[in-house]
Design a protein that fits this description.
The chain is of the alpha/beta class and about 230 residues long. The protein has 6 helices and 8 strands, in the order αβαββββαβαβαβα. It has 2 domains: about 140 residues, Rossmann fold (3-Layer(aba) Sandwich), CATH 3.40.50; about 55 residues, no CATH class. The model has no long low-confidence stretch (mean pLDDT about 90).
Length: about 230
Amino acid sequence: MGRLFKNRKEAGQLLASKLHPLIKEERNNLVILALPRGGVAIAAELSQLEKLPFEVLIIRKVGHPHNREYGIGAVAEDGSYWLNDVYLDVSTHINAQIDAILNEEKNEIERRKKLYRNNKALPTLKDKIVILMDDGLATGVTAKLATQYVKNQGAKKVILAVPVCAIESARELRRKGIEVVCFDEFQKFLSVSQYYENFEQVDDSEVINILNETRLLYSNRQPELGQ
């Protein structure tokens, strides 16, 4: 199939157009959270077009010990995690490897919390409509934990907004009561990158620059971070 988007900038703009009716109706009760790093570039476009601030929710994929790109679970900011039971108790050796990867990802979460939010907590999500943004939804392992984490914080409604997604992953989330807003959905979905002409990695410096610019621009309307 052909590419859908030139880059994350275009994808974010197109996704913003789909979200506009909701934002117009609910903007006073919204919290927008981006999943770094790619989701930050997507959320930046929505923020600019709708004149709304956003923050980052840090969730890390847990990769299989034999193929770290293949997600078998995820870890949240508070250290809670979800793992696919299929991969547990296979052997003591594999379990030890998975434990090591979990600890590695927890350390990375702490690093990013300090770097991206100066170790401050998320804004209050209780009774809010939360829009979670990423650059795509493939297997859904991080999205599954991210949406559950937000629900556990008392959000009234959780919306996952992505430019492109795998149909089955979107269906699974919808069965759990999560609204999925996606510019296009596909049955045969190998990777998020296949739908972008340019899918260069977003690095820490780019994330920090976007967040600093957004916080400065909307300092009087920014959801207050916890301590």
